[in-house]
Structure formats: C-alpha cells, structure tokens
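Design a sequence for this backbone.
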C-alpha cells in the first residue's frame, strides 16, 4: 500500500510536468486509473500506518480542561474497544487502576481522543485511617468484594440530550460507559455513610489533587507503563496471582497495614 501511495503522488508530478506531451499525459491518466482501481479493491490501509487515524475531531473544554466530545454511541463503542484490550488486567481490580487508566488514555490519544481522568477518594477518619471503602462485587466470591480507598478511570465528554455529560470508561468495574455520577454511585451505594472527594482531572493526572502528570510522549514513561501493565496481567493470569501480588507489592511498602486493611475479607 505504501508503494501505491507513492506512485499516486508521482503520477500527479508527471502529469503536471509533462502536460505539453499528450501521449505521456494519457499514459499517466490511464495508469493512475488502474492504480486507483487496484487500491480500492485492496484492504484499507493508511500511508502512515504507524499512526492511528484520528477518529474523533470534536474538541471541547470541561472545567477549563481540553477534552474530546463524543456521541453516546461513540462512547459505548469506545468502551467496548477498551474492554477488548486483552493485555490490560481488567479482571484483577485489586490494584493497578492508575496504570490501567493511563494505558487506556494512551490508547485513546493514539485514536485522536483526548480523555480526562475521573477520581474517587474516600476521606480519612478524623483520627486517621479508614472505616469506609469503595466496593466492587467479586463474581467468584459474592460475599467477599474488592475494596479500595481510591479509584481512577478515563473520562470522555458525551453530548446527551443537548447537554455535555462526563462519562467514565472503566471495564474493571462497569459493563458499559456510564456517567461519572452513576460510576460514583455504583462504587459507593453499599455504604450510606461513606464520604468521598471527587475530581475530573487532567488527561495525564496521576492521583486526585496532584499536580503531577504522565508525559505520554516520553518513551521512558511509556516503557515503564507497559512494564506495569504486563506485571498486573501476569497476576491476573496466574492461579496464585493474588498471593504473588501481596508478596511482590505489599510487603515492600511502608503502608502495608493500610493496604491489607483495604483488601478486606482476605482480598
């Protein structure tokens, strides 16, 4: 396909350069038509196949931040595409949401979509520590849900019934794209006393309230992200993944006790 792209450009050059030669012009036109016919019957491919073509080009702003505006159907299609990324460990929700959110964001940016980040954070008790948690049901163990104090996922703006509404793309917790408010409700409805801080932050923002952003143009940061994504996928695929995660991740952290607390019921 790259050769066809080059030849088409070359033919335009020939036609312009040899306009005074009727026979050459006729030859160029005939060959150009032949190449166009071959090109139209071949599988579609970009001349610049190393870059994904931008699918959505409707920029907008939300709370002063530049993002992309999608239709409801486009948002659901985007959710399905992200959920199909089998290198991301959506079925290992115990940890890694920050990396999952960044990887989905990276993939969206390659498609020409600029998402924001949706954050939920449980407020600490006055004396420190946590008594309340975000919660996600574990289908394998209905009485033993996943619990966290913080969660994050990409957000896109959706034109819905004349209004611009933030929708969350979170295959680890949802089966479709949902509004930010519905996402918040789904993860906190089990506890009427839970108090949350929320934020729809910048595209590369790491955590709620943080000024630090990931630079998706930095090869070193992207490589680190890919390493993290692969690590969580290995936990997801292993029968001993949760134990491996605890051994690899928790015992080396200063906040081990708090993390284990968040993983209630043996999670």
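Sequence:
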């Amino acid at each position: 396909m790259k050769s066809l792209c080059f030849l088409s450009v070359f033919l335009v050059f020939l036609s312009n350069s040899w306009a005074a030669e009727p026979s050459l012009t006729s030859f160029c036109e005939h060959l150009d038509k032949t190449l166009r016919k071959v090109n139209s019957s071949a599988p579609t491919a970009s001349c610049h196949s190393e870059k994904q073509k931008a699918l959505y080009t409707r920029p907008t702003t939300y709370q002063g931040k530049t993002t992309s505006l999608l239709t409801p159907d486009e948002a659901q299609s985007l959710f399905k595409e992200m959920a199909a990324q089998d290198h991301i460990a959506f079925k290992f929700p115990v940890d890694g949401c920050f990396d999952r959110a960044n990887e989905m964001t990276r993939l969206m940016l390659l498609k020409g979509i600029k998402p924001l980040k949706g954050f939920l954070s449980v407020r600490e008790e006055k004396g420190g520590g946590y008594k309340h948690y975000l919660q996600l049901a574990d289908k394998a163990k209905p009485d033993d849900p996943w619990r966290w104090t913080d969660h994050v996922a990409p957000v896109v703006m959706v034109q819905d019934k004349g209004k611009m509404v933030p929708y969350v793309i979170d295959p680890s917790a949802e089966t479709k794209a949902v509004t930010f408010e519905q996402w918040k409700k789904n993860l906190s409805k089990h506890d009427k006393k839970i108090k949350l801080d929320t934020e729809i932050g910048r595209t590369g923002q790491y955590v709620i309230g943080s000024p630090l952003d990931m630079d998706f143009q930095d090869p070193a940061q992207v490589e680190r992200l890919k390493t993290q994504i692969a690590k969580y996928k290995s936990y997801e695929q292993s029968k001993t993944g949760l134990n491996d995660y605890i051994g690899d991740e928790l015992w080396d952290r200063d906040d081990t006790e708090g993390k284990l607390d968040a993983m209630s019921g043996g999670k």
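The CA atoms of residues 108 and 114 lie 7 Å apart.
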